[in-house]
Design a protein that fits this description.
globular, disordered C terminus
Length: 231
């Protein structure tokens, strides 16, 4: 019963900032579920060798498309949470701008599909490819610019080092991706590692935002407790 009371207490403490955080938490989960569901439902599709984008061309590719569209939309909502809850340092507003374009890029990736192999390039395929490359570069720049702000904010300082490492890793992965042949036997795996680094950071930052919003709500109502005990 204590566990249920705790959950009910937390639920009652949710506010607009918590809602923005939940958007960031749900986004990566929807993308992962959509990608895995479509992958396992497609005969002969390999998570190791086949690209992420090629999955959208399969009969159940709409699952992945929904994942990217949902992720893009929810990231845009989550970015508002970053804007409203992080102490501003040099590069902060530019970072937020890059995050906005990052979310919009995910929407474009979902809306425009890649071209099938051995088929002439189409406008849709060109938009998809160009946007994917842009997203891979926007993300590391965005979080590296955000790092000084995280470091200067007591509520976010604990993920500043992780953010710096994730940004450097994303930058290195993006640079290698430029030289990676499409027909490499492990292309799909490498692409998923690159994407995983991005969405894991979003998940971690969203959880941090949720914790921060709940802590701030509790501090503004110190008399609130569960069964006479503060949480």
């Amino acid at each position: 019963m204590h566990g249920i009371s705790r959950l009910m207490f937390i639920f009652k403490r949710l506010n607009i900032h918590s809602a923005l955080a939940l958007a960031g938490i749900v986004g990566p989960i929807v993308l992962i579920v959509g990608d895995l569901a479509a992958s396992f439902a497609t005969p002969n599709y390999s998570l190791i060798s086949n690209s992420i984008s090629s999955l959208a061309l399969t009969p159940v590719g709409w699952l992945q498309t929904i994942g990217f569209l949902a992720m893009g939309l929810l990231v845009e909502i989550f970015v508002a949470g970053l804007l409203l809850n992080i102490r501003r340092a040099r590069g902060f507003h530019l970072s937020i701008g890059f995050f906005v374009f990052f979310g919009f890029g995910l929407l474009l990736i979902g809306a425009f599909h890649t071209d099938p192999a051995e088929v002439a390039r189409t406008i849709e395929g060109i938009i998809h490819s160009a946007t994917a490359y842009a997203v891979f570069w926007l993300f590391p720049v965005a979080i590296l610019l955000l790092t000084p702000s995280l470091k200067s904010d007591p509520n976010w300082k604990n993920i500043s080092v992780y953010t710096l490492v994730a940004g450097i890793l994303a930058l290195a992965l993006a640079m290698v991706f430029l030289c990676l042949p499409d027909k490499a036997s492990w292309f799909g795996l490498y692409e998923r590692i690159l994407v995983a680094n991005m969405i894991i950071w979003v998940e971690v930052a969203a959880i941090q935002l949720l914790r921060s919003s709940l802590r701030r709500e509790l501090q503004s109502n110190p008399d609130k407790s569960i069964n006479g005990k503060a949480i």
